[in-house]
From TrEMBL:
<dbReference type="GO" id="GO:0016020">
    <property type="term" value="C:membrane"/>
</dbReference>
<keyword id="KW-0349">Heme</keyword>
<comment type="pathway">
    <text>Secondary metabolite biosynthesis.</text>
</comment>
<dbReference type="GO" id="GO:0016705">
    <property type="term" value="F:oxidoreductase activity, acting on paired donors, with incorporation or reduction of molecular oxygen"/>
</dbReference>
<keyword id="KW-1133">Transmembrane helix</keyword>
<keyword id="KW-0472">Membrane</keyword>
<dbReference type="InterPro" id="IPR001128">
    <property type="entry name" value="Cyt_P450"/>
</dbReference>
<dbReference type="InterPro" id="IPR017972">
    <property type="entry name" value="Cyt_P450_CS"/>
</dbReference>
<keyword id="KW-0408">Iron</keyword>
<keyword id="KW-0503">Monooxygenase</keyword>
<dbReference type="GO" id="GO:0004497">
    <property type="term" value="F:monooxygenase activity"/>
</dbReference>
<dbReference type="InterPro" id="IPR050364">
    <property type="entry name" value="Cytochrome_P450_fung"/>
</dbReference>
<dbReference type="GO" id="GO:0005506">
    <property type="term" value="F:iron ion binding"/>
</dbReference>
<dbReference type="InterPro" id="IPR036396">
    <property type="entry name" value="Cyt_P450_sf"/>
</dbReference>
<dbReference type="Pfam" id="PF00067">
    <property type="entry name" value="p450"/>
</dbReference>
<dbReference type="InterPro" id="IPR002401">
    <property type="entry name" value="Cyt_P450_E_grp-I"/>
</dbReference>
<protein>
    <recommendedName>
        <fullName>Cytochrome P450</fullName>
    </recommendedName>
</protein>
């Protein structure tokens, strides 16, 4: 596969990012190291991020993730906006684990601030959004002159991004001083700073702001997107839903909720997760890599500086690898005896998390969050298409938004507790 040949096997010179004038020079968007050029600074950010979000460490976060999944099942009993509940779930996990924050709903001030900043940063990071990226001399146009408007927008975004990165660290610093800080990634990182010199300290604090701030940026919307696709797939494929529920009932029983100890014994549920990620990839075109030197591949010349886009959609819808690619079929991830096939264990095969040295460092974290939400929802609810006032079933359009991270366009889904026992289980959780 060309993406593997270039982005993985030649990753020492295919791991840079494009320099975007607005993102990099005007708004400091590379505080999110997803946009930082390849080099020592990026390496340092990635190393620290990895220490707190890699596979084994994620296991420490399982209890918190399971707690948020229980809260999600409670919310789904009463909500009219299940997508909002999924967003709250995804955000609460990241903000809880990273900053020790408790998020109850979407009106949390930090969430509102962060979402505004992130949405605008992603627009700025989309090539073609600003003319100055094509005509760099425009950077010298005064902000009041025609063509200089982008500078006002950039100044405003810069302010929002600064707050987004600084506010939660200030929150944790204050809590540490008062001795009331919850155990969280930011508290651990700040706690390890005491032995540093002052100059070293301020540099280090900036890196801490950056690696913690990027978690919400990279993880909240993407996780919510995958869960939105999961709900859509369940609404459209009731037989898949009931096969998963049979497995959960058989392995876990109906007296308790499944937790992470069941992850390996529910291969069909894992297969649904892989199929969700394949069927409607969260970021269909990933984030472009920039090649740093002239290169040749299969007779093609690839000039230094070119943007190399890994088309996750095309890779995951290649009929040679995934027959009938538009069909939602979890069994494609299973062996004939119903076990998870080995290929799923390699994130690269998923393409959905990108490639090489830039591969998504939050992929274990993301898959743990997605799995625990899915298994809770499947254990407790039947997810059905809604019926309108005339008694007609309302079909989802199945369409998606466009953008960097895509979402199903709003559709209806009804969450019906599968049994009285299930309903009582949720109600007992409300009293916890
Ligand atoms: C379903 C969920 C997710 C998907 C589909 C996803 C996908 C991606 C993709 C495609 C990239 C670009 C990879 C490349 O350049 O080759 C990326 C980068 C990144 N992701 Fe994720 N991601 C998800 C969840 C998360 C989570 C939960 C976190 C944080 C906890 C996270 C943090 C990051 C970071 C920091 C980068 C930048 C890596 C770098 O440039 O070195 N992501 N992600």
């Amino acid at each position: 596969m060309a993406a593997v040949d270039l982005l993985e096997k030649r990753s020492s010179f295919y791991s840079d990012r494009q320099h975007l004038v607005v993102v990099h020079d005007f708004v400091g968007g590379d505080r999110a190291f997803a946009f930082l050029g390849y080099g020592d600074d990026w390496r340092e950010h990635r190393r620290i991020f990895h220490q707190h979000y890699h596979g084994q460490v994620v296991e420490n976060y399982h209890p918190r993730m399971a707690k948020e999944a229980r809260k999600l099942t409670i919310r789904l009993l009463t909500t009219h906006d299940f997508m909002q509940s999924l967003r709250v779930f995804a955000g609460a996990i990241i903000l809880g684990i990273t900053f020790g924050m408790e998020i109850q709903d979407h009106n949390n001030l930090y969430v509102l601030l962060a979402e505004k900043a992130i949405n605008r940063l992603l627009v700025a990071a989309t090539p073609g959004s600003y003319m100055v990226d094509s005509i760099p001399l425009m950077r010298y146009i005064p902000s009041w002159a025609p063509g200089g408007q982008f500078k006002h927008e950039a100044a405003d975004l810069n302010e929002h991004l600064t707050l987004m990165f600084e506010q939660p660290i200030e929150f944790v610093k204050k809590a540490l001083l008062q001795g009331i800080a919850e155990p969280c990634v930011a508290a651990t990182l700040l706690g390890n700073m005491d032995d540093k010199e002052d100059l070293e300290k301020s540099k280090r604090e900036r890196v801490i702001q950056n690696v913690t701030g990027v978690a919400y940026l990279g993880g909240a919307d993407s996780t919510a997107s995958a869960l939105g696709t999961f709900i859509l797939a369940m609404v459209m494929n009731p037989a898949v839903q009931s096969t998963a529920q049979e497995q959960i009932d058989r392995v876990v029983g109906s007296a308790c909720l499944p937790d992470f100890t069941y992850r390996d014994s529910l291969p069909y549920v894992a297969a649904i997760m892989y199929e969700v990620l394949r069927w409607r990839p969260v970021a269909p075109l990933g984030i472009a890599h920039r090649v740093m030197v002239d290169d040749e591949y299969n007779g093609y010349h690839i000039p230094a500086g070119a943007a190399v886009v890994s088309n996750a959609w095309a890779i995951l819808h290649d009929p040679a690898r995934f027959p009938s690619p538009d069909t939602f079929d979890p069994t494609r991830w299973l062996t004939p005896d119903g076990q998870l096939s080995k290929t799923t264990l390699d994130a690269t095969n998923m393409a959905v998390f990108g490639f090489g040295r830039r591969i998504c460092p939050g992929n274990d974290f993301a898959m743990a969050s997605i799995w625990i939400a899915m298994v809770h929802i499947l254990a407790i609810y039947n997810i059905e298409k809604p019926v309108d006032d005339a008694g007609k079933v309302v079909e989802p359009s199945g369409e998606y938004t466009s953008g960097f991270v895509v979402h199903p366009v709003p559709f209806g889904a009804v969450f019906k507790p599968r049994s009285e026992a299930g309903r009582s289980l949720i109600e007992s959780l409300i009293d916890d």
